[in-house]
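Supplementary material to the annual report.
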Amino acid sequence: MEIVVACGIAVLAGSGVWLLLRPRTFQVAIGLSLLSYAVNLFIVIMGWVRDGAAPFVQPGVLPDPARFADPLPQALVLTAIVIAFATTALLLVVLLASRGLTGTDHVDGREAEE
Amino acid sequence: MLLIVLLALPFLGSIAAALLRANARNAEAWLAGGVALAGLALSASCYPKMSDGQIARFSLEWIPALGIEFALRMDGFAWLFCMMVTGIGFLVVLYARYYMSPEDPVPRFFSFFLAFMGAMLGVVLSGNLVQLVFFWELTSLFSFLLIGYWHHSAAARDGARMALVVTSAGGLCLLAGALLLGRIAGGYDLDTVLAAGERIRADPLYIPALALIVVAALTKSAQFPFHFWLPQAMAAPTPVSAYLHSAAMVKLGVFLLARLWPAMAGTDAWIWIVGSAGLVTLVLGAYIAIFQHDLKGLLAYSTISHLGLITVLIGLNSQIALVAAVFHIMNHATFKASLFMAVGIIDHECGTRDIRRLSGLYRFMPVTATLAMVAAAAMAGVPLLNGFLSKEMFFAEALVVEGPSRPVNQVLPLVATLWGVFSVAYSLRFIHGVFFGPAPEGLLREPREPPRWMRFPIEFLVLACLLVGILPAVTIGPLLDIGVSALLGARTAEYNLAVWHGFTTPLLMSIVALAGGAILYRLLQKHLSRGEERAPFLPPVQGQHVFDRLLAALSWRWARAFEATLGTRRLQPQLGLLLLAALAAGLWPVWAHGLRFGPLPPSPVEPAFVLMWIVGGVCALGAAWQAKFHRLVALLLASGAGLVVCLTFVWLSAPDLALTQLVVEIVTTVLLLLGLRWLPKRTPFQWTLAGARAALPRRARDLAIAVGSGCGLGLLAYAVMTRPLPDNTISRFFLERAWPEGGGSNVVNVIIVDFRAFDTLGEISVLGVVALAVYSLLRRFRPARESMEPLPQHVQQTAEGVSEDLAVPAVIMRWMFPATALLAAYLLLRGHNLPGGGFVAGLALAVGMILQYMAGGTRWAEERLAIRPLRWIAVGVLLATLTGAAAWLFAQPYLTSHVARFALPLIGELHLPSAFLFDLGVFSLVVGATGLLLIALAHQSARGHRLPKEN
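Predicted assembly:
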């Protein structure tokens, strides 16, 4: 299973990076989105990779940390997901405004001279 | 204690002055004058202590780790400066009250003025070198603001900038010098430094430290070769010149040199560096002053020359010369401040300061003229005036000095006499050119005497010149004694402040200077009347031009060249370099230590999971493939990849993440769909072999980066997953404390709303700010012209409400709203113990609202549903902040949580952590922010639809 997750991360990150380097603003937006999936997964697997070990403790019982997935990366990623949504929204609006102002959707605000 | 009041008073006054009304001229003057007078009174009250030779101290801890404390230290020398700074400050305030016109924004002037006074006092009273540098730079800053007070004038702006650049560059040198000095002396405390004189002079770092400190002093006191900024700074209002450029700012350089005299003087290097800079300035300044046509320019060069005199005196390594220097610091302040003020009056009354256009003013303003003439005579060194006394001391010292170089010693009396000749010549020019001769022509109005109180400061200062000049031993003697004995301690040599020493060589030199000056002025009259701009016999190099060239080269040409070679404005290379750097940073440790996998056995592979990831991978690759031409397809594929990630979170034991990812995925997709409408249509693309071949290297390079990054991240992830989790991580803390202290069993949620609630507060603020930013960006949004054409389905939808083909889903969507709201409430309430929480709940409710928009159209939804996203955001931030602040009521740190446990009838025992209120705030903010984002974008379609009709 680990190898599957690792391959998934690799494919997501690769696609994201490829799109990041493309010249159209929409490509960059999608690329950032894919890259953030990969990075979020990457951070979460820093905890424990195991099914059925969600970090919910029993009231009144001293928990054994070895039985739970690490809650800290999860908390980090939870906020990261929401922030990524906000930045995507901001990026989208900025690229729309840039498109309106410059008349092109090239990332530099003008078509590359070929 | 008194010292901190003395220092704080001007700064407090500055803040108060800034808050007064723009036309409150009198109130401002009362305030500033009161502050200056109070400072003067406070300083004066230290007189008994100072005359006993005591030192007043005050200190606070500042940076104990570095052995630096905030220390105020007033000895006799500092006291003398305090008296001068506050006393002349008061007179200048009085003068400025009448000088500033009602149109000038006076709060700014008096505010900067008082702040400058505070900074001056700060330098003078600093008991510690680092603190001294701080206040030193503060004086540069406020002098910049004061010189540039009339910022509508280009000359004022340029002059202010030049003064700032030169003096603050000097300040940086001072910082370096002070650090070196502190290192040599073993402490930054002034007492330590002054006591370590022997060690400092013997240290190999003495020369660099000396050079740096002298550069600072020379820049501040406008000494050659940094003298050029002072004449440019004459664009300042005259009260500023009268204060900064006679008594205050320019005196700091010589103050510093005199202050460190006991620690650093006494070497040949000192005499060469300090003495020679002063000597050149002395003669050069006086010579150029003769040829100035602008009265303030004349005074500026004269100031440069007189400061040169003080510098030479300090640089002579003789105690008597140091006494003369301190004496001249005070004398120069009195006569030069009064002269600047007189020039201000002339400028005010005649509308010009050009000597060529002025003459015969004596008959219009006899009193002012007399005062100015006495002050100018003091500047020239006429007997029975204070300037004469310090000049005599200089001449006497010039005769007996024992410098390292014999020829220089012999030439020095000649140079001194030459300086005397020049001084007399420019003073005569000032007096004769302005006040005598025929009445001026071409003035706008007839000049008159100024108001009574505008003249008072000049009268007072001129009286001081006379009193000191006639009765030095009674008037200035005790003060000078206090100042000098603080510098020299018990070693103070005997000096004699008498007007009449008998027929001595210095007196002869004075007579020669007076006569020579008169003759020189007579000879030069023809040349001067021709009105040439430059002084003869000087090379055509001018300091300010060199400075301008250098500045232009540094900040413009070189910077541009640098940017052109190393920078790019294109995003792709920037991102590419960034990624390459990240790749290199990842590869480096692998290359150094190798990549090994851990001992954990792989868990069994489930076919469904593999299948899911095959879909996910294809989605990601497809999105990457299609994002250029098929945006909708790419968007859907990317969402598919997102869903796979979401499911993976479930398998990774992260249900909260899965929930959040799911809802965020929905909202993001809707958002991007709304944005798609404004992107350009697909450009016709012709695939050509040549085009593909041209793009091949670029694409190959990008592909390599992409594959490298992806594989690197994947390998790293695998390497981590095969290792066991370390035992003692911080997570143990969270897991163990979540229930007893946070009152929740969902550890992730407890971390977010309790343990790390402050981070979350920051995060939701970011979310709110982003929503507001998007909102305001879209208010000014101008779409591209071709995307303003209304879409056919759009017209139909907004005109008739819901189009027919959405009828059945629309009904379902409307009915879904209560259910969505209920789901959101459920997620919110259970968040502390089970998957859920404010983020997910907020997003879910936002999705419910969006569904209403989709079902009924913008107008329909807003008629029925009062959504006020801004209020949701405000309530959210307030609730979260106040929940945190509530802990203060119980004397607990911010955001300390508390779990209330109580029993309700029917429902049973409840426990309500205060973190729940915080989560409620998060929920409210997320609803507001998400709603605002989506609605703002959705409204653009309605606006874009309207625009063409209006035209």
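Chain A has one domain: 2-50+69-102.
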